[in-house]
């Protein structure tokens, strides 16, 4: 796939935003053992994304690469993580998505395993629904999809694509793996991620107490 050259000033700004958020999320324990991937859309043709195998709490601009929407590297010797394909899938599927955050907190990982069989986490009655774009009341329901993990990215992407059928979903879990959350920009994606993390934590606590 041939794509135009990217704007290096735009890239530098995106890299700076990614680094800020990854350091904060790493400090929360959301990126153990170099886990996680984070990206920002750079217009219709490119995305800035973290390279694999790096401590997310210590990233520099050199650890952020550019891929095109076919998940191919642009002007770099780095290879994108295999999971970068899940980022570009979201950018292709939803033109208004501007950033994607993928984390591996214990809460997210455990919830993905516990709800793998049902295929979703049923979230009900949370005031924090209002943190999710398009949701204005607690008097609704949000089913956070859970897809089975796979090392085959085509299989995993197809599983994800099949469950993204409703507007304003903003996230999904991969069983035993972690959470993908997104938004129109990285601040909104971060708000969605933080909201899902909180609600998942509440669900796990209620299960522990026998209320679920």
UniProtKB/TrEMBL annotation:
It holds the Pfam family Aldolase_II. InterPro entries: Aldolase_class_II_sugar_metab, Aldolase_II/adducin_N, Aldolase_II/adducin_N_sf, MethylthioRu-1-P_deHdtase_MtnB. Zn(2+) binds at residues 102, 104. It catalyses: 5-(methylsulfanyl)-D-ribulose 1-phosphate = 5-methylsulfanyl-2,3-dioxopentyl phosphate + H2O. Keywords: Amino-acid biosynthesis, Lyase, Metal-binding, Methionine biosynthesis, Zinc. Its EC number is 4.2.1.109. The keyword Metal-binding applies. Gene3D superfamilies: Class II aldolase/adducin N-terminal domain (3.40.225.10). Residues 16-204 form the Class II aldolase/adducin N-terminal domain. SMART domains: Aldolase_II (SM01007). Pathway: Amino-acid biosynthesis; L-methionine biosynthesis via salvage pathway; L-methionine from S-methyl-5-thio-alpha-D-ribose 1-phosphate: step 2/6. SUPFAM superfamilies: AraD/HMP-PK domain-like. Its cofactor is Zn(2+). It comes from the Bacteria. The keyword Membrane does not apply. Belongs to the aldolase class II family. MtnB subfamily. Catalyzes the dehydration of methylthioribulose-1-phosphate (MTRu-1-P) into 2,3-diketo-5-methylthiopentyl-1-phosphate (DK-MTP-1-P). This is Methylthioribulose-1-phosphate dehydratase. It comes from Thermomonas beijingensis. The lineage of its organism: Bacteria, Pseudomonadati, Pseudomonadota, Gammaproteobacteria, Lysobacterales. The gene is mtnB.
């Amino acid at each position: 796939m041939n794509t135009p050259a990217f704007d290096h000033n735009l890239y530098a700004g995106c890299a700076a935003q990614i680094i800020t958020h990854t350091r904060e999320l790493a400090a929360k324990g959301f990126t153990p053992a170099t886990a996680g991937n984070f990206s920002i859309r750079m217009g219709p043709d490119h995305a800035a994304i973290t390279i694999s195998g790096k401590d997310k709490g210590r990233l520099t601009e050199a650890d952020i690469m550019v891929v095109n929407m076919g998940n191919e590297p642009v002007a770099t010797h780095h290879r994108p993580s295999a999971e970068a394909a899940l980022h570009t899938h979201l950018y292709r599927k939803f033109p208004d998505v501007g950033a994607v955050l993928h984390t591996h907190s214990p809460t997210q990982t455990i919830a993905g395993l516990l709800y793998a069989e049902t295929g979703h986490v049923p979230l009900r009655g949370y005031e924090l629904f209002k943190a999710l774009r398009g949701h204005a009341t607690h008097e609704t329901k949000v089913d956070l999809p859970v897809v089975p993990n796979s090392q085959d990215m085509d299989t995993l992407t197809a599983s994800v694509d099949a469950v993204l059928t409703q507007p304003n979903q903003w996230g999904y879990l991969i069983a035993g793996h972690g959470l993908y959350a997104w938004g129109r920009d990285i601040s909104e994606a971060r708000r969605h991620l933080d909201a899902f993390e909180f609600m998942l934590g509440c669900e796990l606590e209620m299960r522990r107490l026998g209320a679920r």
